[in-house]
Specification:
Distance between the termini of chain B: 86 Å
Structural class of chain A: mainly alpha
Shape of chain A: globular
Strand content of chain B: 5-15%
Number of strands of chain B: 10
Oligomer: heterodimer
CATH topology of the largest domain in chain B: Rossmann fold
Order of helices and strands of chain B: HHHHHEEEEHHEEEHEHEHHEHHH
Largest sheet of chain A: none
Structural class of chain B: alpha/beta
Order of helices and strands of chain A: HHHHHHHHHHHHHHHHH
Distance between the termini of chain A: 26 Å
Shape of chain B: globular
Radius of gyration of chain A: 23 Å
Number of helices of chain A: 17
Radius of gyration of chain B: 24 Å
Helix content of chain A: over 70%
CATH class of the largest domain in chain B: Alpha Beta
């Protein structure tokens, strides 16, 4: 139910929640948000909800000590509490990730990587005095658990959510309308692009990597890249949209990464809230780029290794993070100048290497990964049971999705203009139509039991 | 605007609820009121079709009904004329053939046949799994050591592959299974006449498939594209083909001469004659209740194919099992359901011109689960595994006379055709 593109969420939980939320007096809205979030989270995974509540209470209690109260300022005590909660949060994250990796049948509690990162940033912000007002339990709890962000972020900061203001949240009709527009756009990205193109990636998996032609292997790399992008961007837009409906400001998580001229730039525009988190809470505290070249490189190495491991404990994520580290260091010290001079080279480089890194991201089995790269670069022998014309067959089916995905990724103007003219009649009509197309897909795929009926 | 259009869709749903959408279920707790409108769209039903929905029958469907009626009529006639129903079990006959032959000179023919069978042991796979003996269909055997349920396996009364069993992990959804104890019509003759002849499987080369038609779902698409069938046979396949849309769904037609077209099975069977028809469906229907309905539909389908292709050997391929990962968790895609359905259709084999093939022993472990390294999604073979399937078909072919297969060269006068036994009637006279 907590999945935004789920009919139950769109037509049952969200409207009911919004009505209750709007009818609730401003000062109790955060309480309702907390209760509603816990409800839908527990409905999805009851055991994980217990863990979530425990983590919330613990972080709140210790956070109260970490908070710098002008009246009783005990620096040593604050520091102790800060380190304690930091160790606890990090340990919990590592423990869960390790369990998921090594114990069969153990699933990562829903959204734990995201809410623990929120908790860590909350403690750090308290410790650094960035949070100006003593947080109340309800506000802290609502911030940690709020359902628009609990599963996949964005990793909003406490301050960004205006939780430390005196003023209560007052969502308006305009914010509802804007939120709905972003929500519908995200829904369309997710259901009409990501899910459609994702079918091709599954198809390739079905065939087995050893048996795909080289063109199909490349199509697959792009298909997965687009799937991931529109899935996550779509999700982030929906999360931002729901946030706006609730009276939060929009949290930007993606800023057209595929229009970047370098990979470093790509990651300044991709999953912003995570990148910024690592920048603010790891890279800069370590000295960032101000302590000489060697330290900068080491700091980057640490950040990217951690980024890799945050995504998952398997080796491929580590390789993925390290590959990005290598590319970014190369850019910083060697290629950067060239890419700035000849913009087009930079763009080509991004479009070539980013999909390759996503392949590493996607395939966790190293043997399989090697096989995939052998098909991408077929210098190491022939595939098994190849069907040489396979890519034509799939190109015929998927070209419209590829075209749409490419245009939307490469030309930010399309999206930016749509957002700018969102209140104009054609855009509204278009979005309404898109919405119902999405509903069609959602109904016909979840509504009937034969999800697998298209084998 | 979304609210407004939502109201319009709700209105559609409301006004159509007793007519267009009468058959659709409302589940207001989980789905919005207007879901039915979209479900309807998927099935080509539109809100403006105000009257009680009755899909106009296409010409094809009418044709199909006529054919079916004819086929069942014939079946009725055969039953009437068959005064003495043949009760001999050819499979057992085969096992005891050599003993009998030792005492009876006249039975040398069957001895020869038996010997030939032994010679071609690799080619003719007639396996029996010990657990299955003495069990009736629908019975469940409990393995006390593992406390797992082995779905019952029963030896067919016709000749052909036995159904491979599988461990029951207890997840199969009840609606998809027929209740325990359901007995399918196990008359060996099936809906068809039987003259007592039966055939053993033997090995052939690719040439055997040159006059065959291979019909199936996405799995057959894989066999065509990765198992090399495109180059040696005529294939009519498409994903999501199932026993319910078997004759009317538009399918991809390819021949070994490189022809490519789109057509339906019915059209093809009406216009061309084949010597062998291979049928492989069943995985897409697992989510539709239940085994009995599947069986019934399969029976009809075979009757229609028989009617239209009188000279063809019909091969019914058992549903390939799924991996343990699926079988032990999925209420739809599990081997319990698959085995039950295979047992059901296997009874339609007659050992004469309709055969049941079970490729599962080639692909499954001792629990009847598809080897995990052969499939990434648990259902479809990886491209590299399809050759095994083709090889299986090449070693499980029936050869009735020189018309079935010329690849073995001319048959000399007086030489027994390998794999053909004497008619049962002759033996009965001894």
């Amino acid at each position: 139910m907590i999945v935004f593109s789920n009919l139950e969420f769109i037509f049952r939980f969200l409207p009911v929640f919004l009505i209750v939320y709007y009818l609730t007096p401003a000062r109790y809205k955060d309480a309702i948000l907390f209760l509603g979030s816990i409800f839908v989270y527990a409905e999805t995974d009851l055991k994980a909800a217990v863990l979530l509540i425990a983590a919330v209470v613990l972080n709140f209690v210790l956070g109260q000590i970490v908070y710098d109260d002008p009246k009783k300022n005990d620096a040593a005590k604050r520091k102790k509490a800060f380190i304690l909660i930091l160790v606890l949060d990090v340990a919990l994250l590592i423990a869960c990730k390790a369990l998921a990796l090594f114990r069969e049948g153990f699933y990562l509690p829903l959204g734990i990587s995201f809410y623990l990162f929120k908790m860590i940033s909350y403690q750090a912000d308290l410790y650094m005095d960035r949070i100006k007002k003593r947080p109340s339990f309800i506000r802290t709890a609502a911030y940690f658990t709020m359902f628009p962000q609990i599963t996949q972020g964005p990793i909003m900061r406490y301050e960004e959510g205006d939780f430390d203001r005196d003023r209560d949240r007052r969502p308006s009709l305009t914010s509802f309308e804007n939120g709905l527009i972003f929500f519908v756009m995200g829904l369309a990205f997710k259901l009409l692009l990501a899910d459609r193109i994702g079918v091709l990636w599954n198809e390739i998996l079905k065939i087995g990597y050893e048996s795909i032609s080289t063109p199909l292997a490349w199509m697959g790399a792009f298909a997965y890249s687009f799937q991931l992008y529109f899935d996550f961007w779509g999700y982030s837009l929906m999360a931002g949209g729901v946030g706006m409906m609730l009276g939060f400001s929009f949290i930007t998580n993606f800023r057209h990464p595929y229009a970047s001229g370098s990979i470093a730039e790509f990651y300044r525009r991709w999953h912003l809230t995570l990148g910024n988190w690592f920048r603010d809470y790891v890279y800069i505290p370590l000295g960032g780029s101000r302590k000489g070249t060697i330290r900068t490189i080491l700091n980057l190495l640490l950040v990217w290794a951690l980024t890799g491991l945050w995504h998952g404990g398997t080796v491929n994520f580590l390789i993925w993070g390290l590959a990005l580290f290598v590319l970014i260091v190369l850019e910083k010290f060697l290629l950067g100048g060239l890419f700035k001079k000849v913009r087009i080279l930079g763009h080509l480089y991004v479009w070539l290497f980013i999909p390759l890194t996503w392949v590493v991201f996607a395939i966790s089995d190293l043997g399989e990964l090697k096989m995939y790269f052998e098909r991408l670069f077929p210098f190491f022998g022939e595939g098994v049971a190849l069907n040489p014309g396979d890519y034509l067959q799939y190109a015929k089916i998927y070209w419209p999705y590829f075209l749409a995905a490419f245009c939307l990724s490469a030309v930010p103007e399309i999206f930016i203009r749509t957002v700018r003219f969102r209140k104009s009649l054609p855009v509204l009509l278009g979005l309404t139509a898109l919405f119902w197309v999405c509903v069609y897909f959602a109904v016909t795929q979840i509504g009937n039991n034969f999800m697998y009926f298209s084998f | 605007m979304i609210l407004l259009s939502g109201l319009v869709f709700c209105a559609f749903a409301f006004f159509g609820k007793d007519t267009v959408y009468a058959e659709y279920e409302q589940d207001l707790l989980h789905k919005p009121y207007f879901s039915v409108v979209f479900e309807g769209l998927k099935d080509d039903r539109y809100p403006w079709e105000g009257t009680l929905y009755e899909k106009a029958k296409t010409e094809q469907e009418e044709q199909l009904e006529t054919l079916l009626a004819q086929a069942t009529e014939q079946e009725g006639q055969t039953e009437e004329t068959a005064e003495e129903p043949v009760s001999t079990e050819p499979a057992q006959e085969e096992e005891t053939a050599s003993e009998e032959a030792a005492t009876s000179e006249e039975a040398t023919a069957s001895e020869e046949a038996a010997e030939e069978t032994e010679e071609q042991e690799e080619a003719s796979v007639v396996e029996k799994i010990p657990e299955e003996e003495g069990l009736k269909e629908g019975e469940v055997l409990v393995d006390p050591e593992n406390e797992t349920h082995l779905t019952s396996l029963s030896m067919p009364e016709g000749v052909g592959d036995p159904v491979m069993g599988a461990t029951d992990y207890g997840v199969a959804g009840a609606p998809y299974l027929s209740p325990a104890g359901t007995v399918f019509n196990t008359d060996t003759a099936g809906p068809f006449a039987e003259n007592g002849e039966y055939y053993l499987f033997r090995a052939v080369n690719e040439e055997y498939f040159s006059d065959a038609l291979i019909v199936g779902d996405s799995r057959t698409v894989g066999l065509r594209d990765f198992g090399g069938m495109r180059d040696c046979s005529t294939v009519l396949a498409k994903e999501s083909l199932n026993i319910f849309n078997l004759f009317t769904k538009q399918l991809e037609y390819t021949t070994r001469n490189g022809e490519v077209a789109t057509t339906t099975l019915l059209d093809l069977l009406l216009t061309k004659q084949y010597r062998k028809v291979y049928l492989s469906v069943g995985i897409n229907e697992l989510g539709t209740p239940d085994t009995k309905a599947y069986y019934q539909k399969y029976r009809e389908a075979i009757a229609v194919i028989r009617q239209l292709q009188p000279d063809a050997i019909i091969y019914m391929q058992g549903i390939m099992h799924v991996t343990k990962a699926l079988s032990s968790t999925d209420k739809v895609f599990n081997n319990t359901s698959i085995v039950q359905r295979n047992i059901a259709i296997e009874t339609l084999a007659n050992g004469h011109d309709i055969f049941y093939l079970d490729m599962n022993p080639e692909f499954c472990d001792e629990n009847g689960d598809l080897y995990a390294d052969l499939s990434n999604d648990g259902i479809h073979l990886k491209a590299s595994a399809y050759n095994t399937w083709r090889d299986y078909l090449m070693t499980h072919a029936v050869y009735r006379d020189a018309n079935d297969f010329t690849g073995l060269g001319p048959i000399e006068e007086g030489v027994k055709i390998p794999g053909v036994t004497v008619p049962l009637e002759e033996e009965a006279q001894e």
